[in-house]
Structure formats: C-alpha cells, structure tokens
Amino acid sequence: MANSQDKKTEEALPPVRISIIPFVVLIGLMAANLILDTIEVPSEMVLFLSTIVASLVAFFILKIPYKKIEKGMLKSIDMAMHANLIMLLVGALIAIWIASGIVPMLIYYGLALISPKIFLTICCISCAIVALCTGSSWSTIGTVGLALIGVGTVMGINQGLVAGAIISGAFFGDKMSPVSDTTNLAPAMVGTDVITHIKHMIYTSGPAIIISLSIYLAIDIFYSPPSMEKSQLENLQELISNHFNVSLWLLIVPVAVVVMVARGLPAMPALILGIFLAVLAVPIFQWDYLVFALEGGVTFSNSYSLILNILASGFSMESGAVMTDQLFNRGGMASMMDILFLVFTAMTFGGVMEASGMLQSLAGATISKVKSIGGLVASTLASCLFVNISAANQTMAIIVPARMFALTFKEFDLHPKTLSRACEDAGTVTAPLIPWNTNAVFCASALGVATIDYLPYVFFAFISPMVSLYLAYTDKTMTRIEEEPETIIG
User: Fold this and answer.
1) Is residue 168 situated within a structural domain?
2) What pLDDT, on a 0 to 100 scale, did the predictor assign at position 81?
3) What is the total count of domains within the chain?
4) pTM (2 decimals)?
5) Is residue 311, in this structure, part of any structural domain at all?
6) In a domain, 486, yes or no
7) Would you say residue 94 has pLDDT above 50?
8) Residue 195 exposed, middle or buried by CB count within 10 Å (0-12, 13-18, 19+)
C-alpha cells in the first residue's frame, strides 16, 4: 500500500542487494568470531573492518563522494559523544563510590535486608522505580544496579540473571518515564505528545513487565543458588566493615543524586554531582583508608593525588580476601577506554551506512510488501532491531524507522502513537541485547557482566515486542486517526 512518494523514496535509495553487503560482512565476521574459538578478534576490529567494507561499497559501487562519507562518520560519532562522556563519568563514579564507602555500605546492608528468595524480583522492581523517577536507565544501572550486582554476587546468584533483572527494570522505568530522552524522542518523531505516547505504551510495556516479574519471581522461588551459610555472610560483612566505614549517612549521596535527576537535572551533571559528593565523603567517612593508602602521611597534596588516581585508574586494595577484592577492585575512567573504542568503531560503521543511504534502504525494504496492520508493525519492529544491530545506536533505531514508516502508518489510518509505541517496543528495549550497541556496552561495563551472559535473562526486552506483535495481529489497541485527532501534532 505504499504510495508514489514511498516508491520515489525507494528508487532514490541504493539497491538492497548492494546495501546488504556491509551488513552481511559484519554478521559474518561476528559469527566467525564466535565459531572460531582459537581466534579471538576484538569486536571493535570486526566493526572497523566492516566500516572499511561499507566505505568501499559506498565510494566505488554507489559513487558516494568521500566528503559525504566522512561527514556521515563524523556526524554519527558526534551523536555518541554524550554517551562516551557519560561512560567516562560512570567509570569515575564507580571507583569513587567504592573508595568513599557508598557501594560497600549498600552491599553491607543489602546482605542483611534482602532475602535471596525474592532477590531478582526486588532487583527488577527497585530499578524500575528509580528509572521511572529519573528517566535514565544508565544512571539507574550505574548506581543502584552496581550495588545490586554486588549483593547478588555475594549471595551466589548467577550474575547474568541479576544483570538481566536489573536491565529489565531499568529499561522499563526509562521507557515509561516522561523525563526520559527516548520517551520524548519517539512521539516527537511521529507527531504526537509524550503523555499520549506513554499511555499507549501501557498496553505493551505493562503486560511485558508483569510477565517478566512473574518469571523472575518463579526463578526466585524454584532456583536455588549455591548456599551460603549465615556465618559466611556475617564474615563478609565483617570484612567490609574492617576496610570501610559503612555509615548510613553515606546514603545522602545516592539519594541526593536520585532526587536531583528526578527534579530534572540531566544525567551528566547528576553524575558529576555524585562524584563530587563522594570525593567529599572520602576524608569524612574513610579517613582510616586514607591513612592506610598513604602510609600514614595524609596531606592535602597526596590525598588530592590519590583521589585523582582513583578517578582515573580505579579503586584498588589488597584485603587478603578474594571476594572483597573481586567486588571492589574496579572502576576508573581508564576501565572505559576499550569500551569507547568499541562505541567509536560502531558509530563509524553506522555513519557510513546512513550517509550512503544503505541503512535506509535496508530498513525500508519491506514497506512495499506490507499488506496488513500486523505486517506493518512486524516490519517496524524488525527495522528497529536491524538499526540497533547495524547502527549500534538506540536513538537511530527510533529515528530511522519512525521516518521510514510514518506515511505507511498514515495510509493504514493508524494514529501516530501506534508507530511511536512500536519504535519503543523494539528500538528502545532491544538495544542492550546487541553486544556492540552503545547501551549494551554501557550495561556490560557498568555491571561487569558480559552481554552474552545477561542476554538470555533480559526478559522484558524479548516480551515487549512479542506483546506488540500480538496486539497488532489481533488489531487490539491499534487506535485509528479519527478516534483521537486532537492528540496528533502537525
């Protein structure tokens, strides 16, 4: 049902048979990386090689001017700069929150208060609430999630399970928050308002999070993690209290950050605030650590040097206990360098694909074949997933399909909110499942759990698009334009 304008757009784009070449190379190299166990090639090098192939195809076959290709790469990299800066700040935040005793304190009391019998359920619910208030899945994962993964590790619960519950809750809360950037972007791209968009997402995200919570609760009830005696937990708490002052006054720092973000403070200033408050907390609450680390000679200059080194290189101590060292020896901006390289190469690949039109060609390849509402939504969801894979960016996974499918949704007499919901049901939630996507890279680095390990347990990310498909094929909650014309903008 594509109109003449759609056909004209398709004719202006590169042929699908050409556009798919770089994508096939990318997937092929990634698959080879997994299959050939004896050859371990970093993902960033695979993306780098795929970028070269995409550039060669664009320049020699599609005759795209080099300047346009270069401009596309730089534009795409620029889109990721905000995320890169946040990742550097999160690295510093993790290190200084450990050094100040915030993370050890949260783990100490978490071991005393949280039961392993409902741990995954608590992880998902608590992260959903924090992300709903702050509008940021990243801030939630980098703060509350960091403490929860520590508690889960100590309890002997599978780290992939814990990370999956954290990410499910965080992305649900982010998706349903009126102060989230993606939640505002999706309706803005299609021509409706954010409140209308959020209300419409309740029909897909609501059942998806309820089903996810039910699965986590069932795992909590029937899955028995390796038993840890109460005496072992008490010994670990004693180890933590021997090396850190676990004062509840330290809660002021994370609470202040959450409150400020909930009041509208953007993620980057909020993280800087969290770092600054934690730096002040180090001499106030962890004086004994300073004395030990500086071998008794605590002065302003050497304390200043120590704290800057912690922010840059991470927190490190030798407690003599393997568990505490594994929990706390981490963080620092330097720990994010490999991650930034991965994001850089992923965004250059996406930039070439978009600037050459190959990304739009592949995303819109199915439009002319759409014959039903179910097929339309399925194509939109698939396009969002495809862009998340090829462009490695959640924002692009919303923008490109929203642009490509807007006219077709209108032809089917569907309200714009049905398109914005579909974009979020796949574009937002599948981002942490793609190992080289900026969201997955952040989740893996902040939680210390590889994407492949947590991927099977992010139930919300799988269930959300499935619910969306069900509603589309049964024509339920698929609002028509004439039903709510007042909520259409433009």
Assistant:
1) yes
2) 83
3) 1
4) 0.80
5) yes
6) no
7) yes
8) exposed
